[in-house]
Design goal:
By secondary structure, the protein is of the alpha/beta class. It has a single domain, classed as 3-Layer(aba) Sandwich (Rossmann fold), CATH 3.40.50. About 35% of the residues lie in helices and about 15% in strands. The strands form two sheets. It has a five-stranded parallel β-sheet. It binds zinc ion.
Length: about 240
């Protein structure tokens, strides 16, 4: 059943807020998922299997494989990314996003079903308005693939300055040493879940900690992949 949200702001901006099956988004997912992508991090870019970042061992070195529902351009926010950003701090559009996440995971990422443990990216230390999306996405994926959902394996042990307006190099530097492993790990195959993948710095740091703790495989799955451009100033949220 379709439910229309009569939010005039959105109607005025010409965004269709109908909840339910959405042929336009389905079409975009199909197009995106069928594109050639880096075998490791999932960026749309491939010459011989690995993108420029992964070739250098620079960005996603510790991540085995990355999966995403959709890629989008920050400069051109669309129906999907608007809803994803809203879902960050309140539960609006939760059903819409979770439905897409599970659909794409099931159709395109069957190898991620091997994960023994699903971990959401933890909330930042001292954050007043924590991002709730990774929790919901992680919980729902764990339920779908019959894995354990653990929120306390990796946590932020140090406060971190906002990553907003930082480039890839600065982000990597900012996140270094801010996360810790909570206890001895008993499992080997992990799936780390976040809502939005920008440069992958946080996820890479989590993967590094898990690998150092004994994990064999660390895959990551995010709802949105925001196109990151090395040289451009960006307005991260
Ligand atoms: Zn890559």
């Amino acid at each position: 059943m379709k439910v229309l949200i009569t939010n005039t702001n959105y109607v005025n901006r010409g965004v269709n807020m109908a909840i339910g099956p959405n042929p336009r988004i389905d079409k975009r997912i199909k197009k995106y998922q069928n594109k050639k992508k880096c075998k490791k991090c999932g960026r749309i870019y491939t010459e011989n299997g690995l993108c420029e970042y992964c070739k250098e061992g620079y960005d996603c070195y510790y991540i085995d494989k990355g999966g995403f529902v959709l890629e989008y351009d920050k400069k051109r926010k669309d129906q999907f990314s608007r809803r994803l950003y809203k879902f960050k701090h309140n539960e609006s559009h939760k059903d819409f996003i979770l439905e897409l996440v599970l659909k794409v995971l099931n159709k395109y990422y069957q190898d991620f079903y091997d994960a023994e443990v699903v971990i959401p990216v933890p909330p930042r230390k001292g954050e007043e308005n924590p991002n709730i999306a990774p929790h919901h996405i992680g919980k729902s994926i764990a339920n779908e693939i019959n894995s354990m959902f653990k929120e306390d394996v990796v946590y932020f042990s140090e406060k971190m300055e906002p990553l907003k307006e930082k480039d890839l190099f600065e982000r990597k530097k900012a996140i270094k040493g801010k996360l810790s492993l909570n206890k001895e790990m008993e499992n080997e195959v992990y799936l780390v879940v976040d809502d939005i993948f920008t440069t992958g710095s946080t996820l890479n740091e989590i993967a590094k900690i898990l690998k150092n703790g004994g994990a064999q495989t660390v895959n990551v799955f995010c709802a949105g992949r925001s196109i990151y451009r090395k040289s451009e100033d960006e307005e991260d949220v």
